């Protein structure tokens, strides 16, 4: 999650020095409308690949899809400085493509967690995994100020994101496995333990997805509206905060990166240790109780997030 958020956030931080003549690197006279299109173009591709990504992960395995997506996204990072010379339209094309490959990340992670994380431990472990989004954002913002003031300038941020993405993808292909039974580095006892608590050893055929029942469910639309509201605020802050600090608060590149990183670090720490921690504890306790079904427990945890 950290590495993939490098690919998502780098443009939000780099768009500031890319359009400032005092940044010590190539700059471009893009207006506010151009920059808004650049920042939003990621989501044009991101929204398209969500559902197909889940189907691809089921058919070809989450390891292959996630590894390729991270590697392709890393390669695209290297082309950002080159594309910028051709105009903001070229950057938009790269951001759309980045969104397409990044749209596969969450479905693949869901698939891997379902097969690898025991039901009674999902609360705590999934919180740790998903907090990588905040920590990845914090790390890229921490390093951005130093990179912008170095001899590399803002292109260095894309080179760093691309290099780390490719290195992670190679390590992931080497070490990861789609499910415990195919992993070569864990014992038979560990495989049996995980499979007994995840049901991944079941030989029964998967049931067809009840699409019509889903689309007729009021709960589906309630969750959809809640998630849309959350992600609108989340990604607005994620993409627009560096630009706001530069244009409205008139902060320089280094101060901008410092304040952005402080906000994101606090966000990451609170996400990891405060409310989710209590949710996890209550969820694991409820799982051991025969009184509630697991789906109700997960929905209850989700409601606490909304509050």
UniProtKB/TrEMBL annotation:
Transmembrane spans: 64-83, 128-148, 157-177, 219-238
GO molecular-function term, one example from the UniProt record: transmembrane transporter activity
Keyword field contains Cell inner membrane: no
GO CC terms of this entry: membrane
PROSITE patterns reported in the protein's UniProt record: MFS
Localization per record: Membrane
Residue ranges constituting the Major facilitator superfamily (MFS) profile domain according to the UniProt record: 1-307
Keyword annotations from UniProtKB, A to Z: Ion transport, Membrane, Sodium, Sodium transport, Transmembrane, Transmembrane helix, Transport
Protein name, entry field: GM07762p
Gene name as annotated: MFS12
């Amino acid at each position: 999650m950290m590495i993939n958020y490098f690919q998502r956030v780098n443009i939000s931080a780099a768009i500031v020095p890319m359009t400032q003549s005092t940044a010590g690197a190539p700059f471009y006279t893009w207006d506010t409308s151009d920059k808004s299109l650049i920042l939003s173009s990621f989501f044009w591709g991101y929204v398209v690949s969500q559902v197909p990504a889940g189907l691809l992960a089921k058919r070809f395995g989450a390891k292959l899809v996630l590894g390729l997506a991270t590697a392709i996204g890393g390669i695209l990072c290297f082309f950002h400085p080159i594309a910028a010379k051709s105009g903001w339209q070229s950057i938009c094309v790269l951001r759309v493509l980045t969104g397409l490959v990044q749209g596969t990340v969450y479905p693949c992670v869901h698939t891997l967690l379902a097969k690898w994380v025991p039901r009674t431990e999902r609360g705590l472990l999934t919180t740790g995994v998903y907090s990588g989004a905040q920590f990845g954002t914090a790390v890229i913002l921490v390093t951005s100020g130093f990179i912008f003031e170095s001899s590399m300038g803002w292109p260095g941020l894309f080179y760093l994101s691309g290099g780390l993405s490719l290195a992670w993808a190679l390590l992931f292909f080497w070490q990861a496995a789609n499910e415990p039974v195919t992993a070569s580095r864990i014992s038979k006892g560990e495989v049996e333990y995980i499979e007994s608590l995840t049901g991944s050893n079941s030989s029964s055929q998967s049931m067809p997805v009840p699409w019509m029942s889903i689309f007729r469910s009021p709960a589906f639309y309630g969750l959809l509206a809640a998630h849309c509201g959350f992600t609108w605020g989340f990604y607005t802050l994620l993409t627009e905060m560096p630009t706001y600090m530069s244009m409205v608060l008139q902060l320089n590149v280094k101060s901008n990166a410092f304040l952005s990183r402080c906000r994101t670090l606090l966000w990451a720490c609170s996400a990891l240790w405060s409310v989710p921690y209590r949710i996890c504890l209550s969820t694991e306790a409820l799982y051991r109780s025969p009184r509630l079904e697991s789906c109700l427990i997960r929905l209850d945890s989700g409601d606490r997030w909304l509050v």
